[in-house]
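hey m, so remember when u said the tokens were messed up on ur end? i reran from scratch. heres the input so u can diff it against urs
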Amino acid sequence: MTEALETMRRTPGAPCWANLMVHSLGTTEEFYADLFGWEYAPGPEQLGPGVHALLDGREVAGIGKLPPDRHLPVAWTTYLATDDADATAESIRSCGGTVAVGPLDGGFVGRVAICSDPLGAIFGLWQAAPHLGIRPRGIPGTPVWSELVTQDTSTVGKFYEHVFGHEARAHADSSEDFDYLTLLLQGRPVAAVHGVGRSLPHDRGPHWMTYFEVEDPDAAAAKVLRLGGRVVQPPREGLSGRLATVADPEGAVFTVVRSRS
């Protein structure tokens, strides 16, 4: 999983960035600094108040501040790479999705847009500026995997295939009780779609889940509690390794994982 993303993440259709919009920027910065060891640098002014999270001086994620009058759910957003944000936005519309924001100029970072698939899962588009370097992957505190949690994989899987050119491959153990697709580009896994049917959280709806690498998911989940967050699903063994699903103090849900090499 980690090796594939390191190689493929700048390929159009691959997850390439994770961004969080929050109400209290300073408090959120402190939470993730304590949890992952992040430091921060100012983000692009064109995209509003926010910071880029750094590990060893290299960017790993973004955190922005919501306008005071926008009472929106706080959630991590997965961005998918594109070579042409405007053309991809048109493809999203023609395939039944929605483009809510942009595409707009993000200054030195390139062009970005906020979209949703036909079942309502929000994701971003990022047409990265050519000079941007490779971000670290597979070390603790970095995004390592993205998974779409939705009602079922059939309709929405076709949407991502058509828009981004993914090959959607059913998991070997897929059945009526386990609906799971791996999304591949050039034969390499870059993300997944997990159909959970009626088990979809009513307060969240379809959503992209960001996985962050940690050395010890059990210890990370316990630390989230100490820092004022909560454990949504306790540590367990999953397809990608040992993991736990947690939420930060503002309610943004994410997964910590010790991925299998």
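this time it looks ok to me. The longest helix spans residues 25-36. if urs says something different then somethings off w ur setup not the seq
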